[in-house]
Amino acid sequence: MKKLYLLRHGETKLNSKGITQGRIDEPLSDAGLNQAYKVAENLKKMGLEFSDVYSSPLNRAIVTARIVSDLEPVVYDELIEQDYGSLDGLDYELTRPYHFDFSEVGGESRKQVGERYYQRLMEIMHQSGDMVLVVGHASAFKAFIEYIGQDVPKHVPNCALFDLDYDGSGFFFNQLISKLDE
Fold first, then answer.
1. How far does the chain reach from its first CA to its final CA, in angstroms?
2. 104 has catalytic annotation
3. d(CA 12, CA 32)
4. Per-residue confidence band for 162, with pLDDT thresholds at 50, 70 and 90
């Protein structure tokens, strides 16, 4: 049995303002940097040492990955956040009527994101060691959890950690650890 941890990036200024950033390459805010450093400390206290680290291509994920691990993250385009289409950069409340299906506004459906993540994570788990960390984004992680047929947490704070098992053929979501930055 292998372990897979999915870590949401630290906070950005757009996160703090309730703005949908999707694929906007927004850097971490000072608060987000502090969150990532606190998570790094807490992961060490928990005894989590990763054999492999992967990241979304967006800066906020790469920087978080570099802070929380001594390993340089391998970046895969498939680990990018969901494409919100024309809703990127707008108030998050404007996305609610779409129920995470943004295909009609030039973006991706939740199913498309889940499939994209599932395919890449299967490849990652086949080629990696026993303790894998992927740093990415809340909507994409939720789409993946839904895609594997498990209950999706409603709220995923910045720097929350999804704990999953991988048995060689499938993924099993155990818990969301959401207070790592305290």
1. 30
2. no
3. 6
4. very high
Phi then psi for residue 135, to 5 deg, are -105, 125
123: which residues sit within 8 A by CB, 6+ positions away? none
pLDDT at 157 over 70: yes
- Model-wide pTM > 0.90: yes
Question: Is the pLDDT at 182 greater than 70, yes or no?
Answer: no
In the numeric block, the tokens 């995923």 are attached to: 156
Instruction: Answer whether 14's CB lies under 8 Å from 88's CB.
Output: no
With a pLDDT cut of 70, the percent of the chain lying above it is 98
Whose CA is closest to 25, among 12, 10, 6, 34? 12
Residue 148 has pLDDT above 70, yes or no: yes
Q: Which residue has the tokens 């030039």?
A: 106
Residue 137 annotated in active site = no
Detail the DSSP E strand segments found in the chain: 2-8, 52-55, 74-75, 131-136, 161-166, 171-177
Q: Of residues 11, 81, 108, 137, which has the active-site annotation? A: 81
Give the whole-angstrom CA distance, residue 22 versus residue 87.
Answer: 9
